[in-house]
Amino acid sequence: PYIRVLVKGAPQVELRPSVVGKNISIRVNDKEVMNFPTGTKLTATRKGQDIYLNNKKVGPVLTITGDKPVMVEVDGRAYRGTVNLTTTLSKTNIAVINVVPMESYLYGVVPEEVVPSWHRSALEAQSVAARSYAYHAMQGRAAYSYDVESDTRSQVYKGMSSEYGTTTKAVDATKGMVMTYGGKVINALFHSDSGGYTENSEKVWGNSIPYLRAVEDPVKGVNTSTYRWTVKTDKKRLEAILKQAGKDVGSLKEIHLSPLGKRPLTSSDRGASGRVLSMIVEGTKGKATITGIEMMGYLGLKSTLFDFYVGNISPVDIDTIQKPKTYHSFSSKNDAVVIQGYGWGHGLGMSQWGAQGMATQAKAGDSDYYKKILLHYYTGVTLKKLY
């Protein structure tokens, strides 16, 4: 199976294809319109709606391939497979779409999404999650020019320059393996660090997905910088940020939000993981409702799993405190404010650092431990080998 990846958009692109054989073939609607000796450097330039290759007009859409394509360099970055070029997606740019076998695509994805030195089982779990995500993204895309993008809008993919021995082995070891639910390949979302607990999909997306359920990380705090973090500010700066965001409530008096404590939580303003759904900020001019996602953006936080500590209060450890209290009242002209948060990312599906923590518990020689990781983070799924 092949996947089409949008890797670049620019008015001019430098290309250097490598093929087995004598000629690089330039095709339009699967018909060869010109060819070049293998290794020829090609400059694709957009003029109006057309693409010119080395100053020769080809048209708005073309494919660069050969009898046995090996790879193609795009502005110095090498990609396996072939490329399609088109002007139909933009008024100014040429879109460069890498057409590549699924497994070769994953060679360039997995090392960008996780740390190549991680435990083998974590790398294998990521390989299956990434393959499942890609297959799900391809569904219903036949009429489109591409299936996925090469950045965080889909999965990060940087071609051959990112490939790493350990991650390539993990992809090969799980070749063709995906996760399904109800017979369909799942949207296998993942994130950097859950902060100890993943979230139910409806609390993030608004719709309930049966395999994206809140679960606890069996091993917490594997990476200290993503598991628990703090952001320090003060009352005046917070008031200024709210005013700039159109949420001017005057001088802050109170933040109405349930305290963050041991999970799972059942309060209406937080998800099971403790991620903030909404809060009310109250000031001298009135009240305003703010979502967790909005506050995350205002303050540049890593996730919506956080709490406020107003005044000279030290943040508590939510994994150990039994009866959490709120420290959300403002009492002075410029109270100090500490935001303590947990995790990095949306919190749906697999926690990558959590997977690494689980993987360290695998017994030597257990080649299927990656399945245990996946079955933990994706509720009720079935592992299936497609090819």
Describe the structure in your own words.
- Helices cover 20% and strands 33% of the residues.
- The protein is built from eight helices and 24 strands.
- Strands 4-3-8-11-12-1-13 form a seven-stranded mixed sheet. Strands 7-6-5-2-9-10 form a six-stranded antiparallel sheet, with no helix packed on it. Strands 15-14-24 form a three-stranded antiparallel sheet.
- Helix 1 (102-113) packs across helix 2 (120-138).
The count of DSSP E runs of length 2 or more, i.e. the number of strands, is 24
- Please state the structural category: alpha+beta
Low-pLDDT residue intervals, each spanning 5 or more residues = none
Instruction: List the total number of helices.
Output: 8
CA radius of gyration: 25 Å
Distance between the termini: 9 Å
Q: How helical, in percent, are the residues?
A: 10-25%
Major sheet size, sense and barrel closure:
7 strands, mixed
Oligomer: single chain
What form results from the Cα inertia axes?
A: globular
Q: Order of strands across the widest beta sheet? A: 4-3-8-11-12-1-13
Short description:
With 387 residues, the chain is an alpha+beta fold.
